[in-house]
Amino acid sequence: MSENVGGQSTSVVLQKERHLKWEALDVVERALMGLSGLLLAVFTVTVLLDVTTRFTGTPILWLQEVTLGAFVWGVFVGGAVAVRRNEHFLLARIARSLEGRRRLMLETTSHLILLAVALFLAFFGFAFFLLGFGIHSQPSGTPVAVITAAIPVSGAFIALFTVERLVNGWRGGFESEEDDQFETYAEEGGAGE
Predict the structure, then answer these.
(1) Structure pTM?
(2) Quick one: residue 177, left, alpha or beta (phi over 0 = left, psi -120 to 50 = alpha)?
């Protein structure tokens, strides 16, 4: 499913930091990326329809619920994908400047903090999800739990992807070829993180 065009892979799954990823989870990343794209499209179309129908004087009220759901799910699913792709808030710049034991300690600490946050999201997000069955959005009457389910789902995926990175980092180190390329790019005046 991955082609090589002009030296660049066309796969949705990034090959960046491949040594920190399990191939079995590539399918999950691909599915989550597809879902993120779909949610973005739904969000965009429903906002456009909502504005258009309100402008013409024939508002469709339930469009706001769909827009909200697509937005919330998109943010939380996208956050989980960002963890797998290492495109989230970490001490990446500092970590890339370190080597050996110092890098291992910093990466381990930051990933354990991220894992704690993910487990917090999963646990308390599930409790919030259960509360959502007692609250219904208007005008459709849909339980808010349909939207709040995104929180524990995201927490579970973030925890899974964090464990994946930790285990593989402990086995083979967190350093990668991208670190050297980033340093060269930064020295040449490229944007930093």
Answers:
(1) 0.81
(2) alpha
